[in-house]
Amino acid sequence: MATLGAVKFLLCLLMIWLINFLPLCQGLGKQNLNNGYKYPFIRKASSFSSPPSISTTNTNDGYDYIIVGGGTAGCPLAATLSQNFNVLLLERGGVPFTNPNVSFLDNFHITLADISPTSASQFFLSTDGVFNARARVLGGGSSINAGFYTRASSRFIQKMGWDTKLVNKSYPWVEKQIVHRPTFSHWQRAFRDGLLDAGVSPFNGFTYEHKYGTKVGGTIFDRFGRRHTAAELLSSGNPNKLTVLIYATVQKIVFDTTGKRPKAMGVIFKDENGKQHKAILGNDRESEVIVSSGAIGTPQMLLLSGIGPKAELENLKIPVVLDNRFVGKGMADNPMNTIFVPLKKSVKQSLIETVGITNKGVYIEASCGFGQTNDSIHCHHGLLSAEIGQLSTIPPKQRSAESIKAFVKNKKDIPIEAFKGGFILSKVANPWSTGDLKLINTNVDDNPAVTFNYFSHPYDLHRCVEGIRLATKVVQSQHFTNLTLCEKQTTEQLLNNTVKANINLIPKHVNDTESLEQFCRDTVITIWHYHGGCHVGKVIDSDHKVLGVNRLRVIDGSTFTESPGTNPQATVMMMGRYMGVKILRDRLGKLAGV
């Protein structure tokens, strides 16, 4: 994520909790749908006409597929299924095309800083005390991330049980439409050479493939700095069979429970005015509701719809459709820590372009710089730096709204000069530490309680230490000292710079620069690669059909037991295309034409 000055990939998910002030940021929210794009099938949810009722017999005019969530997986999935069937895609957010805060690399941090109800990102705070974000916009995470595009390893593909031939056709389907080669800045060159000096070799050049060593990957930002999201993949859909509703917040899935197994019949959603609507499936037994709401939204939606641990559902007075104790379990987030790199000269803004794929179980990336276009949403930000601690000295149970509000109020006037620099990012691959997701109420607009239990497994902590050691070697290389015009610093100096950098004045433990383990715990952040909650074999079967329920699937990152590759968006988009083609072939055979 990135902060207001060093738009580093890992933004300090700026938390603006100043209740006594006027709103600090205003999202573009309900954009003019006739401006900025040519997608005739996209319209506001309020334009939808509900059927008179959801019944088990009168659904001949229903949809073949209703997809809940127009995100990184949902958009390519909808586009693919619409080639042969009537598809309704429901997205709770707006469109990315006319929002400059989403569309331009220079404004990467702004959407994350905007916590207004119309923002493209929805802030949440895990019970671990780490700030995080969920997408709330068509295109999902591809509309708010740092844009890096790289495929999963062959091991991951085999682990998922996917058809390699179809996978190798599905990735290029995405790449030809929205993926670009990065411009490769001086910062990234120094980072590349520093990785090689530190032993992360060989150099594999520019490639989408997951290979040990150092490589340059793809990006969804073009050479002009404009973002291309999964929403653009909808242009491959059949406009005569595809309907996309924005500001359509699904509240629950509706089931027929009169038979031996519950059967999905449709969904209930509210539009931008708060009015409820019903969308129903057709009578065909192969018609389905497909939940693609992401690793937070999908288990939340199943729970709100009555699928989950019986006791938890009954406690919230949610009618139990299916008792499944695994829904919301096995949540994981790749912990990330950083090394701050001060600069004595200005540097062009650069997000993730290069990665070191190590044999130590960590990935090393880098970002730097700051930018903001004239037409972006300008805010007076209260700052919390995700890179450097996030209230880490306040025990999680004491991180109340009042304590956070007080902290933000004291730190909101940090000068822009404090943000010159960049960051080397160390991410633990495939964390062994896991947690869970639980509802706190029945309001779909509210975040559930999410726990990731960062570093609860010692192997994750061991790998973090290895990653920090490697990151410091990169910064200490001559390539970086030549770039930064700073003298080579000791490890302790680098750690102190990171812990005590002006962009975050949070006091730390006294030994956090003496103990790398303590440093890891104190400075842990997210890189948004959380996953789990609906695992194969526990919540869904190998075809992604929800166990014990008819006409319901889950297709998104909630099904993963690990985050694919160094950055997951490529594989999540591929997954939408892959599963769409697979469903069409299973249902129509050669007549599918894909």
TrEMBL record:
<dbReference type="InterPro" id="IPR036188">
    <property type="entry name" value="FAD/NAD-bd_sf"/>
</dbReference>
<dbReference type="InterPro" id="IPR007867">
    <property type="entry name" value="GMC_OxRtase_C"/>
</dbReference>
<feature type="signal peptide">
    <location>
        <begin position="1"/>
        <end position="27"/>
    </location>
</feature>
<feature type="binding site">
    <location>
        <position position="137"/>
    </location>
    <ligand>
        <name>FAD</name>
    </ligand>
</feature>
<protein>
    <submittedName>
        <fullName>Glucose-methanol-choline (GMC) oxidoreductase family protein</fullName>
    </submittedName>
</protein>
<feature type="disulfide bond">
    <location>
        <begin position="464"/>
        <end position="520"/>
    </location>
</feature>
<keyword id="KW-0285">Flavoprotein</keyword>
<feature type="binding site">
    <location>
        <begin position="528"/>
        <end position="529"/>
    </location>
    <ligand>
        <name>FAD</name>
    </ligand>
</feature>
<dbReference type="Pfam" id="PF00732">
    <property type="entry name" value="GMC_oxred_N"/>
</dbReference>
<dbReference type="InterPro" id="IPR051871">
    <property type="entry name" value="GMC_Oxidoreductase-Related"/>
</dbReference>
<dbReference type="GO" id="GO:0050660">
    <property type="term" value="F:flavin adenine dinucleotide binding"/>
</dbReference>
<keyword id="KW-0732">Signal</keyword>
<feature type="binding site">
    <location>
        <position position="557"/>
    </location>
    <ligand>
        <name>FAD</name>
    </ligand>
</feature>
<feature type="binding site">
    <location>
        <begin position="91"/>
        <end position="92"/>
    </location>
    <ligand>
        <name>FAD</name>
    </ligand>
</feature>
<keyword id="KW-0274">FAD</keyword>
<feature type="binding site">
    <location>
        <begin position="568"/>
        <end position="569"/>
    </location>
    <ligand>
        <name>FAD</name>
    </ligand>
</feature>
<comment type="similarity">
    <text>Belongs to the GMC oxidoreductase family.</text>
</comment>
<dbReference type="GO" id="GO:0016614">
    <property type="term" value="F:oxidoreductase activity, acting on CH-OH group of donors"/>
</dbReference>
<feature type="domain" description="Glucose-methanol-choline oxidoreductase N-terminal">
    <location>
        <begin position="294"/>
        <end position="308"/>
    </location>
</feature>
<feature type="binding site">
    <location>
        <position position="250"/>
    </location>
    <ligand>
        <name>FAD</name>
    </ligand>
</feature>
<dbReference type="InterPro" id="IPR012132">
    <property type="entry name" value="GMC_OxRdtase"/>
</dbReference>
<dbReference type="Pfam" id="PF05199">
    <property type="entry name" value="GMC_oxred_C"/>
</dbReference>
<keyword id="KW-1015">Disulfide bond</keyword>
<dbReference type="InterPro" id="IPR000172">
    <property type="entry name" value="GMC_OxRdtase_N"/>
</dbReference>
